[in-house]
Design goal:
The chain is of the alpha+beta class. The protein has one domain: Aminopeptidase (3-Layer(aba) Sandwich), CATH 3.40.630. Helices cover about 20% and strands about 20% of the residues. It contains two helices and three strands. It has a three-stranded mixed β-sheet, with no helix packed on it. The chain starts with a strand and ends in a 19-residue tail after the last helix. The C terminus is likely disordered.
């Protein structure tokens, strides 16, 4: 499994972290490999966004892990991309 985070700067807000992508080999998918790492991501990156688009499988993973977008004006099904 591999993941990438990036620091993003929006004009109207403080810099924040964003999950850019997650990759798991096709044979390893659906086994919850990211689950034990998720608390570490939350501790290290705080309340981070998720880059859109998010696949159906990605959305299911985020829902299972209890991820919420860091911005109140972005619906959970829109990933972490900032509205506007």
């Amino acid at each position: 499994m591999a993941v990438a985070f990036d620091r993003v700067n929006y004009i109207d807000s403080d810099p924040t972290w964003e999950l850019r992508w997650v990759y798991a080999h096709p044979y390893a998918r659906g086994q919850g490999l990211i689950d034990p790492h998720w608390p570490v991501f939350e501790e290290r990156y705080g309340r981070f966004g998720v880059q859109s688009p998010v696949s159906r499988a990605g959305k299911a993973m985020l829902d299972r892990l209890g991820w919420k977008p860091p911005y109140r004006d972005v619906p959970a099904d829109a990933g972490g991309a900032r509205a506007g």
